Amino acid sequence: MILFCVIPDEQNETVGLTATIREEWISSIAQGDMQALEKLYYASYQAVYAFLLSILKNQHDAEDILQDTFINIKNGAHLYKPSGKPLAWVFTIAKNLAYRKIQREAAHETTSFELLENSLDFSKVENCEDRLALQGAFSVLSDEERQIVLLHANTGMKHREISKLLKIPLSTVLSKYRRGLKKLKDYMEGSDIR
Fold first, then answer.
1. Contact 6, 62 (CB under 8 A)
2. Nearest to 160 by CA among 132, 151, 123
3. Nearest one of 27, 34, 118 to 80, comparing CA atoms
4. Which of 18, 27, 81, 85 has the fewest CB atoms within 10 Å, i.e. the most exposed one?
């Protein structure tokens, strides 16, 4: 079941991530308000998608889990305890679903990690340089570096927010971000991508 289209229209254009996420949307969702769910989706789907992609390393899986995340939000909004951190709640749901998928696949492992990396699909990225940069990111960065770089670059999350989300020290986030950017720069310069 597709809950929403991934491309926002002019009315629902995504703006500053943390400024637009409101706790009252979640309580409205709990009461069956689909417009509140739509607002939450358009305010956060890009960040959630980037986070899922950094974990799952597969565009199709990230899209599937993104949809599952918002279905779970719709079905479980009544369980949300207001804490001033609705985005953290959304990310926790997404992360749990992603790790559950990884665990299910690990139990039925039939392909090696190299085959998984070779199957990454960046066909929806129209700009050739962006596609090559993404492919480089998935090949030269560690998992944590990839998550940090994608969360910061793709969603605009601050390093402090990433630190809280990933539960790692801010100094580690900053050093892994800088190291990741250096690896990407070296990769692009070494591959003559400019």
1. no
2. 151
3. 27
4. 81
**For the chain, how long is the longest CA-to-CA vector?**
55
The encoded tokens of residue 44 equal 């956060």
Three-state DSSP class for residue 97: helix
- The rounded distance, in Å, linking the Cα atoms of 99 and 63 is 14
CB 4 within 8 A of CB 70: yes
Q: What's the confidence (pLDDT) of residue 103?
A: 82
Over 80: is that where the pLDDT of 20 sits? no
Q: Where do we find the tokens 């804490």?
A: 83
pLDDT at 121: 56
CB 146 within 8 A of CB 184: no
Of 145, 168, 173, 146, nearest in space to 158 by CA: 173
Q: Which of 34, 25, 18 is nearest to 71 (CA)?
A: 34
Could you tell me where the DSSP H helices lie in the chain?
A: 17-20, 23-30, 34-56, 59-76, 86-107, 113-118, 128-140, 143-155, 159-166, 170-190
Judge contact between 86 and 26, C-beta under 8 A: yes
Rounded Cα–Cα distance for residues 55 and 62 (Å)? 8
